């Protein structure tokens, strides 16, 4: 039987042996929701990079560049970190370089040891679940969190994946059980469950309620972005 | 307004500024439940030490020594890590040196920066809450977890503390909200909520179901152990 586990923040990734695992990186608000949206709207590839400087280098080389820090766009870049910015037809068929406060770091941290790294969001939840079921590997859902700390929305997504796989996978560890229980408690009204979360308040201060509503929608897109070399592409 | 936050494992403690905080260390199965029980039964003081070697040194100097690793007693020591071992009248008025896999490390890690370090368990939940309310400091509940990972039972205790203080404290961070929500979902039947947790399974393999039942009882003892120098004593 395959195992599924959850890592609540990249700061705890060293506790997980991922040599036989597909890592599902999630950063619901908003990096992985942006990525999934971009691919759904025709982006060719996304290069996740850890630093703003590296992102600027790609911009000079002709990439469309998206850089976010502290939930806001970094000056001089082409795109901010709103999923609605990724619905732009100028992006169709193009390559994007992207750096965000939490999400891209989680991808770069996972790629060294994992069998595969894929990108998950509520927007492509079922597609991710279907993909994982068809693979022979264990699963680790890696929550990007916020600056090393756990956050609610990524934990809920992790719980949704665990809940969907619980009959076919061994759910061994407490973080996975905790995430699954949190998701079960939230599913009737996820916005309410999240209403006091730190990042919701952060985003609301920035006036981006519509991003929140959008990112909590399930299964809008039947696609799975996967890391090949340094680039995310569609499976 | 005072703040309350939760740290799900000592591996994330570096993200928390505890210079104005009382840290409540909890290790429900079973270090802090043992400590609370010991004090309730008349122990004079407990020295938490990080290593087995250090614990052996205290034993040579006449302390009663308790050493646990991987949920089992280390050979050559006087006490194991069962709360029932701390109900022994030979301990009355005596000093104990104690090392455990997770709990004592959390105490030694907190003491450098925190205003005060106290010991919490379900057994003294209300006493801890009353003590915190009477103090002017912020609160961080530090879950000992299991070898650097979060666990369910410590998270539930943290959530119980947050829930009890939520009207008088600012609950700002997602880990605190997550813990509180988990506690609320578990309170009707905590043993059921915990039934698949990793540590419950570990303890059941060792045949110590009665320890589990005992450690989940609330408010048996109206006492608060606090760290003074290197020793835990009663407040």
End-to-end gap of chain A: 24 Å
Counting structural domains of chain A, the number is 1
Structural class of chain A comes to alpha/beta
Looking across the biggest beta sheet of chain A, what order are the strands in? 7-2-8-1-9
Measured on Cα atoms, how large is the radius of gyration of chain A?
16 Å
Number of strands of chain A: 11
Q: What string gives the helices and strands of chain A in order?
A: EEHEHEEEHEHEHEHHHHEE
Just give the CATH class of chain A. Alpha Beta
Cofactor (chains A, B): Mg(2+)
Family (chains A, B): Belongs to the ComB family.
Pfam family, one (chains A, B): 2-ph_phosp
Organism (chains A, B): Leadbetterella byssophila (strain DSM 17132 / JCM 16389 / KACC 11308 / NBRC 106382 / 4M15)
Structural commentary:
Two copies of one chain form a homodimer. The first copy, chain A, has helices at residues 31-40, 52-60, 103-110, 125-133, 152-165, 174-186, 190-193, 198-205, 209-215; strands at 2-7, 21-26, 45-48, 64-69, 72-73, 95-99, 116-120, 138-143, 169-171, 225-228, 231-234. Chain A is an alpha/beta fold and 235 residues long. Chain A starts with a strand and ends with a strand. Chain A has one domain: ComB-like (putative 2-phosphosulfolactate phosphatase). The radius of gyration of chain A is 16 Å and the shape is globular. In chain A, a hairpin with a 2-residue loop joins strand 10 and strand 11 (231-234). Chains A and B meet through helix 6 of A and helix 6 of B.
């Amino acid at each position: 039987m395959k195992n599924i586990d959850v890592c609540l923040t990249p700061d705890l990734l060293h506790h997980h042996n991922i040599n036989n695992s597909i890592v599902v990186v999630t950063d619901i608000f908003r990096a992985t929701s942006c990525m999934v949206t971009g691919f759904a709207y025709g982006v060719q590839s996304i290069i996740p990079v850890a630093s703003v400087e590296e992102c600027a280098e790609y911009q000079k080389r002709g990439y469309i560049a998206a850089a976010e820090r502290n939930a806001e766009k970094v000056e001089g870049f082409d795109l901010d970190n709103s999923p609605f910015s990724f619905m732009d037809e100028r992006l169709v068929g193009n390559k994007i370089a992207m750096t965000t406060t939490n999400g891209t770091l989680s991808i770069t941290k996972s790629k060294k040891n994992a069998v595969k790294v894929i990108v998950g969001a509520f927007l492509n939840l079922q597609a991710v679940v279907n993909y994982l079921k068809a693979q022979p590997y264990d699963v680790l859902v890696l929550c990007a969190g916020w600056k090393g700390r756990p956050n609610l929305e990524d934990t809920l997504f992790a719980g949704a994946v665990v809940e969907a796989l619980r009959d076919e996978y061994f759910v061994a560890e407490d973080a996975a059980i905790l995430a699954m229980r949190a998701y079960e408690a939230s599913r009737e009204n996820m916005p309410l469950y999240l209403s006091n979360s730190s990042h919701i308040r952060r985003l609301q201060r920035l006036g981006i309620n519509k991003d929140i509503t959008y990112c909590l929608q399930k299964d809008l897109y039947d696609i799975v972005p996967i890391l090949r070399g340094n680039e995310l592409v569609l499976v």
